[in-house]
Amino acid sequence: MKTNIRAIVASILFMVFAALVVVGFTYGWFSFGTIYTTNHVNVGNLEYTLSGAFLNDNSVVVPGEDLVVDNFSINNESSVSSQLRIKITYTRVTDVGGTPTPEQGYVYKGDSDDHIAVIFMSTFLFTDGDATPDEYDDDYWYYGDYATEINAESGVIDLISNIHYDGDSTSTEYNGQTIAVTVLIEVKQADNVTWSELATYNFETGYPIA
Amino acid sequence: MRGENKVKQRIVLSLIAMMGSVFLLIFASFAWFAVSNSNNVDGTDVDVVNLDVEVTLEISMDGVTYVPADNIAIDGAVPGDLVYYRISLDNTGNVPVNVRISLSGFTDQAADANFSYDDTKTLRDVTLVNCSNTVNSETITGQLIADLLPYVPSGDYSNQSFDLASSITLPVSGIGIVYFTLQVSGNAGNDYLNQSIQIARLSIESAMSS
User: Which residues in chain A touch residue B100, judged by CB atoms under 8 angstroms apart?
Assistant: First the structure.
């Protein structure tokens, strides 16, 4: 009797299992699908090649002498549109109460207080586009203007051909002073992101080396 | 002892018979589904289930004008870029269906293999997904892909997936549209330059509605 019951239970279990298998197969036949493959999201890349150079450090310079021996330029190979800006700082020496007083990191603004002159090879505008004064972003020369976008893979962009101390603005207070000029180039993707440094060029010299 | 053997024999025979009938049922069903939509039996039309959902994927850059697309392909994106997609579903079969739409298989790589990228970053962390549909209230609102996927300690997401819509029920001749967007977050900085995320499959699966 026990054996019969066991056999019946086993048969029922098997039947249930078989039914599940059939349902599974049938469900599989009743399903239908469409698949799109090779999907992707790619972010663009900023890629610039730089060229240009200052005089060798410690060169003896005089007012009017061009500190740039190789014009500064970039070759834009970026896959997305971008923006570019330049910050130029230098040592500005003034006479304060009869004492020559150097001011390091003075920002070149292109106004009458500047002691250097810069010749840009493309249009640059010294404004960040808002009226708020004394902002960090105020100290930059923007390629085109603050909103100008450089097209992807636009090629070579000439930047600066000449930087020199202006003889009309400088005099003997520069004697014996160490001066430094720095050109900082920054780029960013056109939208939303913050600026990041692309390159910094430095020039430094002191009183004539013995 | 003899009686027990007989019972065993019967059980074995019944199991064999049952297996045979299961196979017959499977093959018969398969034949039905493989042949056509209807069979004529003695002059009487017997309808057979026809599961068919027509799917169309389209892309738009402005959310207004859509054009057909073969896959999800976003190239040269910059932070903030938003791309619109829509999937049109048309139940052309003769039974109601449930439709599930999912993205699966995520891998990171350089967008341009000629240039490097920061492999400690992933676009999963900065790619936002929005999704809604015209059939039910299932939505995804501004969620990062990383948050939609289960966390995988190994960092291998090539077998992971998430649903854009888990169950859209369409009656016979029912039409539904699924809208979704992908956006590289405006917070993604230059760290994400030249990043790419490959999505192996956009799957649209339909099954008979119960």
Answer: none
Q: What confidence tens digit (pLDDT) does each residue in B120-176 have?
A: 999 999 999 999 999 999 999 999 999 999 999 999 999 999 999 999 999 999 999
Nearest-CB residue to B197 (from A41, A79, A188) = A41
Q: Does B184 touch chain A (CB under 8 A)?
A: yes
Cβ–Cβ contact B42 with A under 8 A: no
A to B CB pairs, distance under 8 Å: 170
Residues 6+ apart with CB under 8 A from B8: none
CB contact under 8 A, A31 and B19: no
CA dihedral B206→B142→B182→B81, nearest 10 degrees, is: 170
Please say whether the beta carbons of A177 and A102 come within 8 A.
yes
Residue B75: name the closest of B206, B195, B209 by CA.
B195
Indicate the SS3 state at residue A29: helix
- Given the candidates 3.40.50, 2.60.120, 1.25.40, 1.20.58, the CATH classification of the domain at B53-208 is 2.60.120
Residue with tokens 């002191």: A206
The predicted structure's pLDDT at residue B144: 96
* Whether ipTM exceeds 0.90: no
Q: Start-end ranges of CATH 2.60.120 in chain B?
A: 53-208
Give the chain B residue nearest A44 (alpha carbons): B76
Tally of CA atoms within 13 A in the half-sphere of B97 that contains its CB? 29
**What global pTM score does this model have?**
0.67
Which run of H or E residues covers position B10? helix B2-35
Q: Over the stretch A109-118, which tens digit does the pLDDT of each residue have?
A: 999 999 999 9
Render pLDDT for A188-206 as a digit per residue (tens, 0 to 9): 887 657 777 777 888 877 5
Q: Give me the CATH code for the A48-205 domain, please.
A: 2.60.40
Say if the Cβ atoms of B11 and A7 lie within 8 Å: yes
